[in-house]
Structure formats: structure tokens, C-alpha cells
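#lab-general

N.A. 3:47 PM
ok so I finally got the sequence cleaned up, no stray characters, all 285 residues accounted for. can someone with queue access submit it? mine expired

B.Y. 3:52 PM
send it over

N.A. 3:53 PM
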Amino acid sequence: LNFKRVLKINYFKNNNKKRIFYNFVSLGFLRFFQEFLPLIVIPYLVKTIGLEKYGLIGYALSLATYFGSMVEYGFNVTATRDVSRNRDSNKNLSEIFSKFFFTSLFLGILVFITFSLIILVFPQFNQFLLLYFTTILFVVFKSLIPLWFFHGIEKIIYSTVIGGSMNLIILISILNLINNQDDFYLFPLLNLLGAFMAFLASIIIIRFHFKIKIKIINWSTIKETLVDGRHVFLKQIFTNLYNSVGNVIILGLAYPANPSVTGMYILASKVVGTGVTLANLLSNS
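B.Y. 4:20 PM
back already:
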């Protein structure tokens, strides 16, 4: 009884602690849609398209995700910080949003061109061009979604609604449209459509609900933004070398003729990853 009384009277009367609690709950739901909900569809995918095709999709996604981290450029840290410091000034927020958004867009175009050249040059990627093109476009649009803005102003509920809706639509579409092994190419295509809709929805909300004016920036501002965020970017890009993304890429290179090996590793890492996610929620909040 005393514990409940203290929690009710003291803890939630503190606005900062209340905000952390709401952030924790919102992130919890977001992680549920991102990490736990996809676990429902994995057994269906493996059964429908087979472990080999699932491994092929997973390898394409891991390779594209590594490039996608270049689009994000650590803005989940640097952009969130700048938005948080200026959230009471709509004018400053407009400048900050425009700066990070157009820098991300520039990186997205650069990454797409680079990735496209790689899959066109190397023969092992040529036979699955549609798979790799749709996968990199999905990752680019997903990386362009300015979740850092919602996190910076501590309105994480918008991230939860946008991200949750995207994952729910993709889940329902997969269960209804992917019915046999030949439909495996629909998986990255459905992901792409979901990410594109989430990207558009986030821009519309930021522009019209939060009254943020999107201004075209010059090259010197882009260059300055890249220089300022280089340390966080390097830290995150090297971290990806030894996490599950890097391991999947290495497995794909080591066993190019046997995607089932990659598929088995991805299945195991997703199960382990859901447990690790729970440990990261409070830190992110």
C-alpha cells in the first residue's frame, strides 16, 4: 500500500518522470510492432517460400541495411539532440528539420546509386535485380522517416502510430498475398510500399500538425552537417560490422550457393534480438 501511494502521489507528479514513463510505454509499443510482431510472420514465410528464399531475402536486407545506416548517419543521436534543445522555437525547429532532412535525402540518393552500381557489376546479384532494388529502396525510405524529430520533441507516440501502422499493414499484406515460393519477391515490395507510406505520413504530420516549414538548404549546410556528425556515424557504422547485420553479410559471402545457412542464422538472431530489445527500452527512453 505504501509503495502504491508513493508511486501515485510522488512519482507521477514529477513531469520529467511522467514524460520518461510515457516515452518508455510508447517505445515499448513501437518495439513490439518492430521486433515481436514480425515473429508471427516468420514461420509462415519459411513454410511458404522456403528457408532458401528466406535466406536470400535476409541477405539482401542485411546488405541494404548496412548501406541504410549511412543514410541515418547517426541522426538518431545528433538530430534528436538538436531538436530537443530547440523544441520551444518553431523557427529553429524548421531550420534544424530542413538541415537534417535534406542531408538524409542527399545520403539516400548517394546510397541508392552506389548500391545499384554494386548489384549491377557483380554477377551474383544480377539474377535477383528486382529483389535487391526493392530492398534498397525500402531501406532508404525507412531510413528517411524522421523519427528523430518526434523523439526530440518527446512525442514518441507519433513514431509508434506510424511505425506500428506500417508493420501491421505489411503483416496483413504478407499473409494475404504471399501464397507460394514464387511470391518471395513480393516481400521486399510490400516492405517498400509500407515504408513509403510511413515516410509520407511523417512528413505530412510534421509539416501541417507541427507547422514546420521545410526550407531548401545549400551544399555548404549539408557538408557542415556531415562533418559535425561524423564521429557518431563512424561509431555506428563500425558497430554494424560485428553485429548480426555484419555476420549475415559474411555468411552470405562464405556460402553464396547455400542461402539456407544464412536463413537459419537470421531466424536464430531474430529470436535472440527480441530479448535484447527489452533491455534497451529504458536506455532509449
